[in-house]
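Running this now, will post back.
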Amino acid sequence: MTARPGACHRGILGAMISRSSHCWWLLLSCCAPCVAQAPAGPAQTPVAPIAGQQPYTLRTGTQLVLVPTTVSIKGQLLYELKADQFRILDNGVPQPVTLDDSASALGLSLVVAVQCSRMAAMEYEKLQGLPTLVESLVGGAPFEVALVRYGSHPELIQPFTRSLEKMANSMARMGPCEDDASATRDAVSYANAILENRDSRNRHAVLLVGEARDHGSTVKEKDLIAQLGRSNTVVDAIAYSPGAEETTDIFKHFAGGNPISLLLTAVQAVRKNTAKSLAVLSGGDYFHFNNRNGFDMSLEKLTNRVHNYYLLSFPVPRGTEGGLHELKVSVPGYPEADVRARRSYYAGSDAPPASVE
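Update: finished.
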C-alpha cells in the first residue's frame, strides 16, 4: 500500500460549498419554515461519467461486503497495513480479505440528510463549522451530492448534482421546519433508496445531522437494518441531545452468530440511539455535541477519521445463512490496536422475521 488509507474516503462530502462557507448557515437560518412533504421528490437525473476519469477498480454489489476500517494505537492511526495483516470473521468464520489500495479513484454518491424539526432551530447556530468540514474533505475523486431535510417525512431539496452553484443555492431551502417529529429512520431509508439508483461502482454514503433518537418514523427498525445491511451504504452521523446511554456500549452483547438474536440486539440498539447504531452497523462514524465547541471538535475528529480508513471487502460465501451477520475485524499483529469497522451485514433477500419486533 503506497498511500494512506484515507485516500479511499477523501472527498466524502465532495466540494459542496467551496465558495460559500461563510454564508451557508446564514441562508439556512433565514429561510422560510418548510412544510414537511412526502418523500417522493423530484426525479433523479442520471449523471454521465466524467470524460477522462480514471477507471473504477471496485465493483460493488449484493455479493460483495465492503468493510470500512480504521486502526489506531493509543489514539494514533496506524498506516501502511496490508490485506494479509487483517482478519475478518463472518459469524466467527474467517473470510478472504481484499484491500482496495487505489480507492481514491472511486466515485462518491453522497446524501446529506439534515433534521429541520424539533430542536433543530436551536441547534443551527452551533453548526456553522460544517462548511469548514466540507472544504477540508475536498478530494480529487468524482462525486455527486444530494440534499435531504426531514421532520415528519424526508424531503428531497436537491437531486444529485455535481454543480457547486446548484448545491450552494439549494442550501437556502434547508432551514428549520415547524414539526414535532424527527423521522430519522425514514430519512435514512429514503437516502439509501435513492442511492441504490446511483452508479453501483461509486461509494455510497449518508451524512446524517440531527437528534440521536428517532421520533415518529414509520419504517421499522428491523426493516431498516436489513435494508442497510444488504447495501454497502455507510452512514456517518453527527448528533445533538445524546441520551444517558451515550457512555455505554450499545452493542456489548452483539455476539453469538444467531441471526435472530443478533437482529433483536440491533433493533434494541437502534431504539436507544438511532444515529449511533446506524453508523456502527454500517461502518460509519458517530460523534455528538452539546455546544459549538463540541460540534467543531466532532468535525475535526470526523475529518481525521474519514481520511484514514482502509477499505476492506470480502465476497459473501455461497450458501450462507440468511439474516443478520456479525462482523469482527482484527489485526493479529497488533493485538493492542483499537480496530473500528463495520459490525454487520444482512444476507439474503427474505424479509426480517415477523417475530422480531
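Confidence is low (pLDDT under 50) at residues 6-62. More later if anyone needs it.
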